Amino acid sequence: MAASEPYLSIVVPVFNEEDNVDALVSQLTTALDGAGYVYELLLIDDGSTDRSYERLAAHAARVPGLRVIRFRRNFGQTPAFCAGFDAARGTWVVTLDADLQNDPADIPMLVRRAEEGFDIVSGWRKNRQDAMVMRKLPSKVANWLIGRVTGVRLHDYGCSLKVYHRDVVKNIRLYGELHRFVPAVAHSVGARITEVAVNHRARTAGESKYTGLWKTIRRATKVLLDMLTVRFLHTYGTRPIHVFGSLGLLLLASGFGTGAYLTYLKFGLGLSIGDRPLLTLAALLVTVGVHFLTLGFLSEMLARTYHESQGKPIYFVRERAESLALGGQPEESPRSLTT
Questions:
Q1: If we measure between CA atoms, which residue out of 180, 201, 198, 195 comes closest to residue 130?
Q2: What are the tens digits of pLDDT across the range 225-263?
Q3: Is 280 helix (H, G, I), strand (E, B) or coil?
Q4: Mean predicted confidence (pLDDT) in 97-104
Q5: Strand locations in the chain (E)
Q6: How confident is the model over 186-235, as pLDDT tens digits?
Q7: Three-state SS for 68?
Q8: For residues 120 and 159, what is the distance between their CA atoms, to the nearest angstrom?
Q9: CB 92 within 8 A of CB 111
Q10: How many CA atoms lie within 13 A of 63 on its CB side?
């Protein structure tokens, strides 16, 4: 790492948090300066309509390493994280919320844990300071369900306080609202993940962006759909024909089996089949089966185009160990290179 590069990149999405911005910058700098890290602060103003940006810009003029990125409008938390990941230069990328419910003083602890050999360290709000019915209960159900579906068991997927190795965030593209599923996506390419209990504080200023029954329902629906997307991409992202083709073949087999049974009734037993619902069902099964097979072939073509046109790898290398010499040629002083 060059001397001019930071060791930590702190990425914080900010949306209408003018009452928390001053305390946020103060607590971040205090925690990181006290730990002795070389760091940069990347604060992403996600289209705030209050004075959040003005306060951030004022801090950027006097706080070394603080950079502010301002969106033209509110795009959402995932694009904000993505912008921070793109701009990050540190070996480790730390994310947290701007509402100060995540404690910046926990960052050194998470980084030390990551340095033990993990690619992702996820915070666990063990004693979460939120409403039970509207926030904690839906979160517990979602965490259990996500763990079962993705195979990555974490107590708290929704905790924004996380530490990522730069190789993780630079090789994962986020869309929609997939920021909470980064550990599951990274696990699919071999990332090493652990979880650490962190402090969680009650909000003391500003307003929560997730209050209200309707917002809770909308958020739960988005989480469910994103979870299914992650599961599909993780399992069949490079071989969609396996899921669509399997369904197509199953439906075709069922349709042809039903058709064979009706043929036996017609020509073997001399029964009328024109008014039987099974005839309609057999035709429907065959038609839908052909459609699923066609969809599988089209999906396969799209997957290949996606990976080949953009140079997307289908594998990821953790490290290499190799000799600098060529085989068959003696070397006076053997050397080795490890990366």
A1: 201
A2: 777 777 777 777 777 888 888 999 999 999 999 999 999
A3: helix
A4: 93
A5: 8-14, 39-45, 66-70, 92-95, 120-124, 162-165, 193-197, 321-323, 336-338
A6: 887 788 999 999 998 888 876 776 666 677 677 778 777 777 777 777 77
A7: strand
A8: 13
A9: yes
A10: 25
C-alpha atoms less than 13 angstroms from C-alpha of 49 in its C-beta half-sphere: 3
In the chain, the amino acid numbered 230 is V
Q: Which of 254, 241, 217 is nearest to 134 (CA)?
A: 217
For 69-93, write each residue's pLDDT tens digit: 999 999 888 889 999 999 999 999 9
Angle at alpha carbon of residue 157, lines to 155 and 158, rounded to 5°: 120
Helix (H, G, I), strand (E, B) or coil at 57: helix
Query: Which residues lie below 8 Å from residue 300, measured CB to CB, with a gap of 6+?
Result: 239, 240, 241
- Give me 108's structure tokens: 């050194």
Position 290 confidence tier, pLDDT thresholds 50, 70, 90: very high
Q: Choose among 253, 252, 279: nearest CA to 265.
A: 279
Which SS3 state, helix, strand or coil, does residue 250 take?
helix
The C-alpha atoms of residue 325 and residue 45 are separated, in whole angstroms, by: 51
Higher pLDDT, 333 or 266: 266
What is the reported pLDDT for 143? 78
Distance, in Å, from the CA atom of 14 to the CA atom of 73, rounded to the nearest integer, reads: 12
The burial class, CB within 10 Å (0-12 / 13-18 / 19+), for 304 is: exposed
Q: Please report which confidence band the pLDDT of residue 302 belongs to, taking 50, 70 and 90 as the band edges.
A: confident
Contact at 8 Å (CB) between 106 and 119? no
Answering whether pTM is above 0.70, one says yes
Look at strands 39-45 and 66-70 and give their pairing.
parallel
From the number of C-beta atoms within 10 Å of its C-beta (0-12, 13-18, 19+), residue 277 rates as: exposed
Residue 289 tokens read as 């089966």
